[in-house]
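Batch manifest, entry 17 of 40.
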Amino acid sequence: MAAWRLLRSSGSPGSPRLAAVLGAALLVAVVAGPAQAARLALVIGNDAYAKAPPLRNARNDARSIASELETAGFNVTRVLDGTRRGMNEALDGFLRRIQKGDEVVFYFSGHGSQPPQTGPFLLPVDIEISSERSILRDGVSLEQVVDDLGQRARFSLVIVDACRDDPFRQTSAGRSMAPGSSLSRIEPPKGTMIIMAASKGQQALDRLGDDDRIANGLFTRELVKQMRQPGVSAGEMLKRVRANVERSAQAVNHAQRPSLVDESSSDFFFHLGRAGAVAAAPAASPAAELPAPQPTMVAAGYAPQREFDAWEQAARAGTREGLDAYVRQFPAGRYVAHARARLALLAGAAPPPAPEPLHKGRRPLALAREP
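Output type: structure tokens
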């Protein structure tokens, strides 16, 4: 409204004064640009189920993942022992913050289930399972979460640490759940990766034996270890997680193979750097935002959507030619630091300092974790 009053007071159409005001307003809008792209994460860990078997490590797993994500530059929202209302409010707030171009992670550790003819549901700690309808009414649809993230973010990684053998076929009241409730494979939208801690019909281990004192489940402890490796794309990192979890489970005569679905269009890195290098120590303070686009971008005809599309194309191709073309076209662009780091990796040279994040972050499903 203030801007409208300013324009109204600036003279009649075609006047030099009005033209100058309009030009200045356009310059400010372009230089300011949209909100900087962000790294955002929502992490949920549910142990204290009132009407279902309580869990041991879900909260610990959530805390560990949240800390690793913060080290990687994510602004993290944590929910521990989330009720139906708490989980839904946190998810609604999280989705409102996501803008096109953002990189997001959603992590859930706890119980889940999948009634017949539906997708998987993540369960709050206050759920009382008396029928399939109670799961549909009070659970959080994983398919809906995946779709909502895919519609908003440039890249989304969905991690579910929950069992997939359905512990809820018999409720505390002795009522039999309908068969066929193991969590099924989800077909995510483009730009999305999903990993579940176990394959359909499997239990995800909280520990490798009675003498195992590690406070994280098998899947999350391996995930944390691999997230710390610099210069490894998320796709490659998750393949390592899957292989190592399966190998460790086999050593104790247990079948657990994480399920991985990758529909992402470009590589994503938790930490840029040379593959095989030692991960840097956690940052002492949250990473700062990148500076706003520089005025030179205006002269170059900067357009946020055009830059985003160019970066998507360059990142998807992953070639020196494509990345060089992006840097030449947008020398002060939002993704230039990331492009230069990838170019250094392709050249086999020591990469420049890792760019700051683009803004200032159980088992698979019957979904249920082993108590």
